[in-house]
Amino acid sequence: MSRIDGRTPQQLRPVTIERGWSKHAEGSVLVSFGDTKVFCTASVTEGVPRWRKGSGEGWVTAEYAMLPRATNTRGDRESVKGRIGGRTHEISRLIGRSLRAVIDYKALGENTIVLDCDVLQADGGTRTAAITGAYVALADAVTWAHRRKLIRAGRQPLTGTVSAVSVGIVGGVPLLDLCYDEDVKAETDMNVVCTGDGRFVEVQGTAEAEPFAREELNDLLDLAVAGCTELATLQRAALTAALEK
Amino acid sequence: MSRIDGRTPQQLRPVTIERGWSKHAEGSVLVSFGDTKVFCTASVTEGVPRWRKGSGEGWVTAEYAMLPRATNTRGDRESVKGRIGGRTHEISRLIGRSLRAVIDYKALGENTIVLDCDVLQADGGTRTAAITGAYVALADAVTWAHRRKLIRAGRQPLTGTVSAVSVGIVGGVPLLDLCYDEDVKAETDMNVVCTGDGRFVEVQGTAEAEPFAREELNDLLDLAVAGCTELATLQRAALTAALEK
Amino acid sequence: MSRIDGRTPQQLRPVTIERGWSKHAEGSVLVSFGDTKVFCTASVTEGVPRWRKGSGEGWVTAEYAMLPRATNTRGDRESVKGRIGGRTHEISRLIGRSLRAVIDYKALGENTIVLDCDVLQADGGTRTAAITGAYVALADAVTWAHRRKLIRAGRQPLTGTVSAVSVGIVGGVPLLDLCYDEDVKAETDMNVVCTGDGRFVEVQGTAEAEPFAREELNDLLDLAVAGCTELATLQRAALTAALEK
Amino acid sequence: MSRIDGRTPQQLRPVTIERGWSKHAEGSVLVSFGDTKVFCTASVTEGVPRWRKGSGEGWVTAEYAMLPRATNTRGDRESVKGRIGGRTHEISRLIGRSLRAVIDYKALGENTIVLDCDVLQADGGTRTAAITGAYVALADAVTWAHRRKLIRAGRQPLTGTVSAVSVGIVGGVPLLDLCYDEDVKAETDMNVVCTGDGRFVEVQGTAEAEPFAREELNDLLDLAVAGCTELATLQRAALTAALEK
Amino acid sequence: MSRIDGRTPQQLRPVTIERGWSKHAEGSVLVSFGDTKVFCTASVTEGVPRWRKGSGEGWVTAEYAMLPRATNTRGDRESVKGRIGGRTHEISRLIGRSLRAVIDYKALGENTIVLDCDVLQADGGTRTAAITGAYVALADAVTWAHRRKLIRAGRQPLTGTVSAVSVGIVGGVPLLDLCYDEDVKAETDMNVVCTGDGRFVEVQGTAEAEPFAREELNDLLDLAVAGCTELATLQRAALTAALEK
Amino acid sequence: MSRIDGRTPQQLRPVTIERGWSKHAEGSVLVSFGDTKVFCTASVTEGVPRWRKGSGEGWVTAEYAMLPRATNTRGDRESVKGRIGGRTHEISRLIGRSLRAVIDYKALGENTIVLDCDVLQADGGTRTAAITGAYVALADAVTWAHRRKLIRAGRQPLTGTVSAVSVGIVGGVPLLDLCYDEDVKAETDMNVVCTGDGRFVEVQGTAEAEPFAREELNDLLDLAVAGCTELATLQRAALTAALEK
Measured between beta carbons, which residues in chain B are less than 8 angstroms from residue A210? Predict the structure, then answer.
């Protein structure tokens, strides 16, 4: 049985990670998981929020948003509505936590890095693409900060790499990296964030139709770990390529 | 090794579920998990939101909030700040999804039930106490709606029961139902929502300090399933007691 | 002629004042006037708002709110609406002014006490119950601050006691402490805040249907003063009981 | 002993009521109580708010605001702050209630009249000047609606007249119609709204420094009733003058 | 062919500029262009916004608003809506830029002047009347600041005068200073801000119905420059008259 | 004398117009004017806003926004601030007016087209790039609507083409299409919107440092008209190329 787009259940969509997409940001990536395209920038500023001043420790945070026509039907802008929706809040927090999981605040020093993940086109898995791309932008921003001596020589704020993927059960079959049409039909939907060494940073599973059994959970975790490992390889490849900016 | 409050790692805090706490609401419960106290009301209204009209299906939603002095330090009211924070949004959505997982919309008919979960006193696990208590308030509201003929005789909108508990790894030891002081020290923190038959509705695990391994995840899930089963028994007991209202 | 609930015109509803209802707050009270239940907490913080810094004087303020299902029909949360309504504003200001009327700012020193009055169940007279309960929470908070040496020994910030009651004319008869069903039918509605020695802190009378004559005003004031005196006795009794917290 | 501005304790400031100040509004008045100047407009629209439709009854409501430099120090605009303050809310509600006290909704029919009271210059007593002026604008708007046949011939929505004045105790002496400098020093401050026949619509007394005794309250009410009676005469005079618009 | 109100195409409406309209503001003007009436106040405060501190330079800014019944149909207050509309923002910014064009920040020193332009009655050209009136209020505020020694003797922050007028093409004819009824019918609408020596500060032309040709643009600019010159004369006359305040 | 980037005063930056950049939107364009990159989508929906229903006429509107790191320093998101700034409002309104200038509402029928212009990277001239790109997206959306029979065969809602360019005086020299570094130094700054036949839709000139003379205005208009003509040619070329989507 093949999937909507011809993939096997264990197969990621074509993933591309283009660095240097912005002339202004300290790190910037256009990441695509199939038709899902997220523009990730990392902005470095000296200093930290007030509540952290004098601690000698840095801070990393993230904001996620969708362009109004990233989806099939145009959505109202949150700036126009005057309030950020629950989904946006939730995903921004998830991205922030995921990247902070591989940050050594002491090594970062009193610097702040903000990751902005703006979805240009959505086709399922926007939050996992965002985390995967934001990590690469973050890594470039750290390199930039090293070069500018904002981070002391010999200190490495990154304690590992991090990537994310969605998995789900569709028609009883566990699938990796759901596109939108699969996501809509999924009985169970899970987003998994892993470090490069295969440990978990976040596991968020939701029963969409039916509660799921322990076995199903295990199958999904297997798929996700394999997917994240593959994404970690792609991140590494992207980061070792020359950045012609 | 015993815990801060003398419990074993597998032990829940003392749980109480008091029904009939409001003279106005169709279902109402004061639930406590140790010193965490959440006031849950279920409000039934005929009709559904506009986007669901004419579908013949009902709707269930939830809102979570904390009183300003529910915590050790007074927090500003979200009404005064003029915006709902990300954490509040996230938990409200979690509670809503958890309860919808055991609802048959067709059987509910075009009625809406809103669960309000207001934390009177917080000591860790407010979202899991809220889900556990809200289920009981929901069950009472369904009974009320049956009596008022809002739901047709012979139709049962509840397809099961649902309860939730937090688990976490503290000092390397997996613990059930963390109180605030444990939560703060947890390396990994997980909230698990289960149906009464031991299947999963939501699994949300977060690495607070260190990424966690598959094994640790498994230990935590074991603990959580046992805890939810125990909570399901307490819910059943509460619901079979006479409601003197 | 007896009232809806069998009381005489001069009779208060059963009043209870339970102290120590929160393990976090410096003072906390669950006050009930019949079915009206308000949870009052007093939060002490060292320091004062910016505009008062260096004055050597303290500050006392209050916030009032209703849980969404405190009333017969569920109301939208003000946090969700993103703005505080006029009624909420008005009552919060009334409570703050009432308590400040018995505060000696110099004796309080540069400390701030915030009174939060959250209505758990509403049946008329929520603002008067809130003032009456908040005074007791405030007194406990002052005791706490004395013990912590935030207030200098020998200085008493409380210059008196304060309580409040509603009165109104229903069917031509002046009644004390209106419940919701009486309030709705009242031709004139008045909230009176008195000190323990029978003087006035606030008098707010409103003609709901017909303008009222001086005579009627006098009758209502007589009733209110008697009611407040009775409430002052109950406050004193509550405060002299041991607080087992 | 004479007052700051040479008045006797029982004396109003010079009061002027200029009608026809706007070419657009159905009723419009520039009212001044000494240096306090309030621009009041009455806007008539056919139809009523949704919750009142089909009742056959009309609605009257009011909004109060201050221009940013109405006061000695410039205040931020509430439109810029994005929220209406408690004081504004409170006064808007007071003005609305006061005018509704002399309205027969049935006679008004399904029409809405909105009173806008914008303070151009403030020198104490802005809310009482607003009520006094708004009544005259309202009366003109009712005449306009009669002429346009929005109100049926022979029906009079106005059941009386209404005016308001502030009173207070300054240096132990009860004074009528406080200007700003007196208001700031008042021990007790009271706003009284009366109908033309000397009955009360609103009585709002506040102890600013010391709680006040029954006797003082009585003195203040005497002063206020006399002041309102005088204002009623001035309103009548203004309304019988020709409106050259 | 004569215009709606009998003017020639090159004729301004009757313009009045009354100074000293507020007892509180450092400069204040009631300006009218026919039935358009705008109340302009200039508020001086020592100090500048944070981003300008220590620069030795001052700041000038403006806020524009309409009273709800300034227009033929009542508009909702922006304070009630909780947000400022695009039109308000746009005009406030235009007024601020126009006045800053004749300010020497160094000579002003670290003082801030805020111009508030509140439209009491609108009949077309409110933004141009506002700029014209605000300049006069600004000049009075500068005089005040000189007298108070906030501005150093011998330094003149005003580098020139500024006035504004609207022009438009109605029925193919270029007209000066459109009233509302003309504005509504205009094919092209232009607001022009000039200095007293006939140079341009702002030119904002908009095709309302048809795009306009270079020739038409030229005709409109000719009209506008002549109109501004006339307004500059009126401003000068107003400012040389004695201010009896 | 050559410019910062080597251009002559009369030279546009390299302009690219890529169509089909979104798989969801009915029209979509990535437009670049040098390093300024704006993503424009056109979203078609059947029906019109309430105030236009039953008129048989369509509606076109626009929203402009910047990604937080489109600029050299990261800006806070307007969704997070909870309000749209004046600059955003102003530009959104300008884009909307500009495109409506070439729309025949009757021919469009009761359909709405929303243009979203999101700046991915800013280097001066974002509003003019947005208008130029949005026109192309609009043209594609009209074609789409024709194919879907939302617009009747034989009716052409586009009455012409529209493009925009900035001009300014830098160091006394009139320049076409300012980049950011030129814009910052400009004495006068003007945005001009023209139709393809060289007539004006909008002319917005602002003196940044010095008021400008009629002559300078004329020079700038000459430059702008030539620039818009060139842009119109590029738009035509882009639209005649095959859209491989």
Answer: 199
